[in-house]
Amino acid sequence: MQHKNSKMLDRELKKGSAELLILSLVEARPRHGYEISKLIEARSEGMLRFNVASLYPLLYRLEKRGWIEGRWVEKAGQRRRRYYKLTREGRKVLAAQRSTWQSFVAAINRITETENA
Amino acid sequence: MPDWHQEIKQRLAGLQLEPTREAAIIEELAQHLDDRYAELLAGGAAVDEAYSAARAELSNRDVLQQELRRVEPKIKPEPVVLGAHERSNMIADLWQDLRYGARMLLKHPGFTAVAVVTLALGIGANTAIFSVVNAVMLRPLPYDKADDLVMFRFADAQGKEEWIYSPAAYRDLKSQNSVFTNVAAWGNSTWPANLTSEGEPERLQGFQVSANFFETLGVAAARGRTFLAEEERLGNNHVVVISHDLWQRRFGGDSEIIGRSLILNGVAYECIGVMPADFRFVLKTDVWTTLALTAAEEKDPDLGVWHQVARLKPGGSVEQASAEVETILRPHFSNPNSHMRARLRPLQAVLMDYSYPMLFILFAAVGFILLIACVNVANLLLARAAVRRREMAIRAALGAGRGRVVRQLLAESTLLAIFGGACGLLLANWCIKFLVNGLPEWMAAKNSHVAMLKLDGWALGYAFALALATTLIFGLVPALQASKVNLNETLKEGSHSPAQSRGQHRLRAVLVVAEIALAMVLLTGAGLMIKSFWRLTNVNRGFESRGVLTANIDPAGDRYREPHQVVAFYRQLLERVSALPGVAQAGITNGFLDRGCWIAIAERPPVPEKERPEASRYSVSPDYFRTMNIPLRAGRFFTDRDAAGTPPVVIIDETVQRRHFLNEDPIGKHLIFEDAVREIVGVVGATRAWKGFSSMSDEEAPRVYMPYQQERGLPTMALIVQAPSGDPLSLIPAIRRELAAIDKDQPIYSFKLLEQSVAELSVDRRFATLLLTAFGALATFLAAIGIYGVLSYAVNQRTTEIGIRLALGAQVSDVMKLVLKTGMMMTLVGVAIGLIASLALTRLMEALLFGVSATDPTTFAVIALLLIGVALLACYLPARRATKADPLVALRYS
Lengths: 117, 894
Description:
The complex is a heterodimer. Chain A is mostly helical.
């Protein structure tokens, strides 16, 4: 039961926050898909994981909205990889989503803290 | 490493993605799975374990497809028409071709930029010159049904001309003809009018015209009216029509101008009309009045006053009209039995006589530039076609017919031409602004289209047509070449198909040769113009123009009816002006407006009047020669004692002496003129001046000088002031003051440095020279690019060969020679062809040349050397690169 609940929470949270996660990760510099998935897994200490079937459709969607831009980059001695970088539009969206998320987390915190007190 | 492609492809199958998009997704995802798989292995997982864990990333069959379906667009199903041939899909194909072409061009920005700039230069220069040609030659004059307006010329079979100007001839023609709706006339000299009412006196440019002049041209006044028939009669003739420009400039566009009285030459004229802003006729004119003659003048057969312009009746034939004019005017010919024939010419043709040679040459020059530009772009396309051989072969292998491939390539060149045309229009717009400022005033004065020259619909259409034509010229040959592919050879990886590239190389070489030949012709033209311009500006004119100020003056009004009054006026003026500080000498002359006369020597047997040699006759003040620094060769200058009442005298110049007094002393001999027999008292140096804008020759004309005090009736005179130190222009206020002290109503106008007037004599040629030089430079530049491009390409193609040569011990200088030889062969052949073409073509510009023959060997040699030099430079760069070829790299290449 415990396991099933955590899985459900996982999916819901992921759905709402996935865009924010990806936008944040490509904010500093362009990254390729595998790197993004590894970073999500590493930074969430294994709590969050995207597989291929969910990550790439999401990347394509963000790209289509013009928030990120993908580009094939060839580096010497490596296979070419598709790197995604944040667009100007994406930067604005990221700022907005970030503040919404923070208010949301703050609100949740306030509620849960009151219950516990 | 497992191959994930099939796995992923299966999951995408239902999505119907565009093939390229699908391939990209597969590549990206497969890479992710590879990374994951490798990582798992590295973490110590077993092979199967790693495989299934990585595969699990794809989830079950539907998830990926579902997620992607929300994002990725489906491919639009193309209608498959069974048995359709190409035609039914032409529009779709064309659209596809254009889109593909645009993508290809964007992918190669360097190539695209060079091609577009080259075409823009060609199309821009052409459109600009076309605008001028259109304004001057093609568009009808801005008069009503201007095609029906004709002028007359009378000449015999030998080209000997006669001008029939007398009032009687005009009246006869007007009353007896049956072929014209109207015959109008205008004075064959201008009517300078001193406007003294309304502020500062001003000298206006006027014309006397017949009352029906404007009616014949079919132009109405913008305000008020034009002349009535009775206003042609003496007494009724004090009416003027003014130009829009004068109305604005002098009267500030006063709406009450009609009916106002203007004082012109001391007489009141009523202003009855203002012409439209764009009205022009022959010369820039401020006022028009009627030409009213006394009864005696009307009958005077020698009074040459009228130019005639007539309007043909609708549908009337020029031949019939010519015959009738000849019949009517025959009694007025100097010899009614002569073989003089009347020839009617359209007014427009007459007016553009002077513009024609210059425009023709400029138009030809820009045509050449466009051809060179086309050749250059064709060369670029050929080089690209060689690179794209494999692409073409694959297209052919996949079933594209030759026509289809040609269409694709033509679509690309059309895009280039359209971009080039658009940039060319911008360039043309800029050029036209330059042209409007630089075109000689006389060209603009004749035709208001020229003065108001701008980029119009005609020019737009022309540029568009040019762009399309160039597409065909530069695009078709490379397209046909490229579509001729040998599938087997080309598709074999790395094969160099030498036979084909040799054929293609030959074609490119031919194009370069053509380009050099064209540049050669253009440069020769420019060279001849430069040389004749140089000759013209450096000709010894026989007088000193430095530090000399000139101004025009023409005393008019009641106080100057008698010659002695005029003489007194000038004497007073000269005394006062000579005394001004800074003035070394002052004199007067009738300047460039010389009058013709015949030379008849009293001490020789009489010669019939018609056979007497001609000379130019000047009226000058005693100090004129000193002021102009014209040297005295024998005898004396005039003095103030050579006046009315003393024996008539004349001074001749060296040209007259050389022609008529070769081995005898002319001093003391006498010349017979209409008014007097004059004793020759002096011989002065010969001078050259410009004889009108239509005359392109500048020979030393024979000149004779009379003291102005002995002349009856002086024309407009030029006051000439020599101020050797300081700025002569600073004397203007002082001269005006002195004049006002004598007579405050006399205007003095057109202050100018003589040096500047002399420079202006060649201004129209300066402009043509400048343009032609610029075009020549442009052509050379384009040709150099052409040689450079072809050689660079050839060097690239021959890297292996050159590498082997170097490896086998060839010296760097050998390789250099090898490449230079290829380039120089093309150059020399081009120059040779260009020389021959120049010999044939520069004859056409003979009329524009001065002091240099159209086949001037020096110019031809210098230009050929110049072009060879530039070509050598263009060859040197690729040649040097060839010598840098590393044998190892070159050999590995193959």
